[in-house]
Amino acid sequence: MEYCEQLKKGKVQMTSQEQLIQQLHQLGVIPGCVLVVHCAFSKVKPVENGPLGLIASLQQALEDEGTLVMPSMMGDEPVPFDPKTTQCLDMGVVANTFWQQPGILRSDCPHAFSATGPQAEWITSAHPIDPPHGLDSPVGRVYELDGYVLLLGVGHDANTTVHLAEDMAGVRYRRQTSVPLYQDGKLIQFDYEEIDHCCENFNKVDQWLDAEQLQRKGTVGHAKARLMRSRDVVNVVTARLQQEETIFLHPYGVDEECDEARASIGIGSLGSISGEGKSSQ
C-alpha cells in the first residue's frame, strides 16, 4: 500500500524503456552477447509497459545478434511439465511472461529455460532431468558460449549458474527429489538425487566476485543489478568448493534442506572434495 501511494503521488518515477536500455548498457550488457536473466520485477518496477517493457528493453539492449535466456522451470505441480502450458510462477512475473511471447523457445524439461535469439535453439534443446544444471543444460550451454548472468533485484541465491559450478566441482551432497512424468504412456514419479540445499549461502558469491572485481553493479529500473560472466562465477565457486565442499551448507540444525544435504555425505561440520574430511565410499 505504501508503494502504491508513493507511485500515485509521483514519488516513485516511472522508468522508460529507453532509460532501461541505457542502464543496461551502462552496467555492461554487450549487444550480441548471451545473457541469462534472473529477476524480481517487484524491485524493478515501475517501468514503461510493465514486464513486457522490461523484456523488450533487454532484447533491444542485446540487439538482434544477442540471445536472451530466462529460467522457466515448473514448481511443485503434481502433473507432468508441458512446455506449452505449464506456468513458472516461482520464477517471477517477468520469466513467466517471457516464455509465453511469440517466437520464444522453451525447453521440454521440468528444469526448463526459455530463450530467444541466434543461440536459443541450442540452449533450449533437449537436456536431462538428472543432473538438472550440469554442462548439458541451458546454464551449462550459456557457460560454454561464454555468456553472462544478470541479476535484477535478486541475489546470488537466485543464480542457477552456481548450481552448475557445484556440479562441475563434483560436490557429493544430494537431496532426494522426484518429478511426475509420462513413461511408456503411464504417469510415474521419476525419483533422483539432486545437488540441492536452501541456497541462502549462495549469497557468499557476491563477496567472492567483488574481491576479484569480476562483477559489475548498478541500477536497472529501481532494482540493484549485478552483471557477471558465467565462466567467472563457475571459476570462483569451484575454487572455493575445492577448498571446502560444504561451504554453502548451513550447520546442522539451522535448515532442514541443508541437513539432508549434509546427511547424504555423512559430514557434520566441514568437508572438502579432496583432502581432509572426505568420507570413504
Describe the 3D structure.
It is built from eleven helices and nine strands. The chain has helices at 2-8, 17-27, 41-44, 50-62, 93-98, 120-123, 138-144, 161-169, 204-211, 230-243, 256-265, and strands at residues 34-39, 67-71, 105-106, 113-116, 148-152, 175-183, 186-194, 215-220, 223-229. The chain starts with a helix and ends in a 16-residue tail after the last helix. The protein is 33% helix and 19% strand. The strands form two sheets. The protein has a seven-stranded mixed β-sheet with strand order 3-4-2-1-5-9-8, with helices on both faces. A two-stranded antiparallel sheet has the order 6-7. It has one domain (2-265). It is globular. The protein has 281 residues and is α+β, with helices and mostly antiparallel strands.
State the main characteristics.
281 residues, alpha+beta, two-stranded antiparallel sheet, 9 strands, disordered C terminus
Global mean pLDDT: 92
What portion of residues is helical?
25-40%
Classify the secondary structure makeup into a structural class. Answer: alpha+beta
Please compute the radius of gyration using only Cα atoms: 19 Å
Query: Which outline best applies?
Result: globular
Can you count the helices? Answer: 11
What is the count of β-strands?
9
Assembly type of the shown chains?
single chain
Order of helices and strands: HHEHHEHEEHHEHEEHEEHH
pLDDT < 50 stretches? 268-281
- CA-to-CA gap between the ends? 56 Å
Major beta-sheet overview = 7 strands, mixed
**Which strand order do you get reading across the main beta sheet?**
3-4-2-1-5-9-8
How many domain units?
1
